[in-house]
Amino acid sequence: MSSAPLQTDIVIVGAGIAGLAAGFELRRRGYENFRLLEASERPGGVVSTAHLAGIPIEEGPDSFLTEKPAALELCRALGLGEQLIPSHDAARRTWIWRKHRLRALPEGWQMLAPARPLALWRSNLLSWPAKARIAREFFSSARAPETETSVGALVRSRLGAEVLDVVVAPLLSGVYGGDADELSLDAVLPRLAQMARQGSLGRGLWRARRRRGANTGAARPLFTTLQNGLSECITALAARLESHIETRCRVSRITKSGEGYQLECHDQAPGSPAGRSLQIHCRKLILALPAWAAAELLRELDGELAAQLAAVPYASSLTINLAYSPAPPLPDGFGVLIPPGEGLRMRACTFIQQKFPARVPAGWALLRVFYGGVRDSEALALSDEELLALATGELRTILGLKQPPAAGHIRRWPRAMAQYTVGHGGRQQCIQAALARHAGLALAGNAYRGIGISDCIESGYAAARKFIHA
Ligand SMILES: Cc1cc2nc3c(=O)[nH]c(=O)nc-3n(C[C@H](O)[C@H](O)[C@H](O)COP(=O)(O)OP(=O)(O)OC[C@H]3O[C@@H](n4cnc5c(N)ncnc54)[C@H](O)[C@@H]3O)c2cc1C
C-alpha cells in the first residue's frame, strides 16, 4: 500500500460481495475515478472458497437462491455462465432430527406452513394434535394484525408451539442463524406476512402452489452455485476492478473534509512496518460493511446514524467442512436440520455431494456442518480440536457415521449475519432519514434489504447508482 496521500472521487469501503458489486456497477457505467478499500488480504468477505483434499469447499455461503436473479446475472456478465450449476432438486429432501431419529420434512413445506396438506398428513414429523392444528388453520378465517410481529409469535398463535419448535425454528436458524421469536415476520418473510394478513397461511400457500403448477414453464432449480466454488465470481470481479482495489487496507477513521470526506487507513499486511498509514480524500463514500463496522466509522460524523446502525443485531456462525472417502452411506436429500431442544449443538448439516453432485468427485462425500447462531455464539470460542470432536460425535449420533473424515476444515464468522429482528422496518426508516443528511454517503451490505448474496449485490448496485445519477 502506498503511503502517499490520495485523492479520488468515490471510495468504497469493504470488498465483500456488496462492495465489489458497487465497483462493478461503477465500471459498467464507464466510471473509473474510484477506489475500493478492503481490510483483509483478499476481497470477497464471507464469500470464500477453500480446498479440502483437493475438493473446492465453501467456508461461507455455498450457493444462491435462483429465484433472485442478481447473482445469476452477475455471474453471466462476468463470463461465468458455463460454470453455473443447479442444485440436484430431484433428490431434494430435508431431514429433521427429532426424538432420536431423522424424520423427513413433508414435501411442499414452505418455511412456515405446508403447501401440500396430504404430504403433511402422511409424514411422521409432527404429532397428530399438531397436524390437527394445521388442518384447523387451513379452514380458519383469522387474519394477522397489521402491526409488526415476530415469526415465532405468529406461528405459535396460528399453528402451535410444536410447528414452531420442530420445523420453523430450525428452518429460520438454518438460513439466518436467528431466533424465530426475535426475527420480524415482515422483514424476513414479507410475502408470508402479507398472506397471513389475508387469512389462512396453509390455504394461501396451497393456492399459490396450484397457481405455480398451472404455469407451464421449465422448473428453476432452487439453488445455483459455481462449479469450482463461489470464489470464482469474486476472482472475476476482482480482475475487473484490479487497479481500483487496495487490500490489507483497513479504514479506521472518517471525518468530514470540505464537501467530501477524509479517510485514515492502516496497512494490515503481516510484518508491515508499524504505524504505516494512508490518508484518502474523496467526494463520495460507499460503506459496504456490516452495520456495526459502518457504525464505528460514522460515530464522529453522525452519532445518530451510527447509533441506528449499531442497533442492527448480528449473529456469529461457523462452518465445518468434512470430506469422507470412501463416501459413507447417508440418507438421500440435501441434509439435516436440528431443532433447538434436541440436546445437540449442531444447527444443520448439508450433504454437498447430493445437493451439488458436480462439486464433489465420485466416491467422496462432503458434509458441511453449521454451529453458532444467536443462541450459541460461544461455539466460536471452542478450539479446532474441540469442534472437530463435537461435529464427528454429533454426526455419529444423527447419521450413525462412525467413519472418521479424511480431512476437515473450520471457518469462524464472528458477527457476520445481520438479524432482521422486530423493529427492523422502523430502524431502516431511521437510517434512511439520517442518511438523507449526507448527500455524499451511501450504505450497502446485508444489514438493510436482504442478507442473501443477490440482495447484497443489489444493495451494491443501488449505492453506486446513487452517485452516478447525481
Ligand atoms: C456462514 C454463512 C453462510 C451463508 N450462506 C449463504 C448462502 O448459502 N446463500 C446466500 O445467498 N447467502 C448466504 N450467506 C449470507 C451472505 O453470504 C452474506 O450476507 C453476504 O455475502 C454479505 O456480503 P457483504 O458484502 O454485505 O459483507 P461481508 O462479506 O461481510 O464483507 C464486508 C467486507 O468489509 C471488510 N471490512 C470490514 N471493516 C472494514 C474496514 N474498517 N475497512 C476496510 N474493510 C473493512 C471486511 O473485511 C469484508 O471483506 C451466508 C453467510 C454466512 C456467514
Could you say which small molecules are bound to this protein? flavin-adenine dinucleotide
**What's the total number of strands?**
21
| Count of domain modules | 3
Distance between the termini: 31 Å
Question: How much helix, percentage-wise, in residues?
Answer: 25-40%
Strand content: 15-25%
What is the CATH top level name of the largest domain? Alpha Beta
Give structural notes.
The protein is of the alpha+beta class. It has 3 domains: 6-47 and 230-313 and 421-468, FAD/NAD(P)-binding domain, CATH 3.50.50.60; 49-90 and 314-418, Polyamine Oxidase, Chain A, domain 2 (Alpha-Beta Complex), CATH 3.90.660.20; 108-214, protoporphyrinogen ix oxidase, domain 3. The protein is built from 16 helices and 21 strands. Strands 1, 2, 12, 13, 14, 15 and 21 form a 7-stranded mixed β-sheet that branches. A 7-stranded mixed β-sheet has the order 8-7-17-18-19-16-20. A hairpin with a 2-residue loop joins strand 13 and strand 14. The model has no long low-confidence stretch (mean pLDDT 94). The structure holds flavin-adenine dinucleotide. Flavin-adenine dinucleotide is lined by residues 13-19, 37-40, 45-47, 60-64, 250-251, 288-290, 293, 317, 319, 413, 416-417, 445-446, 451-453, 456.
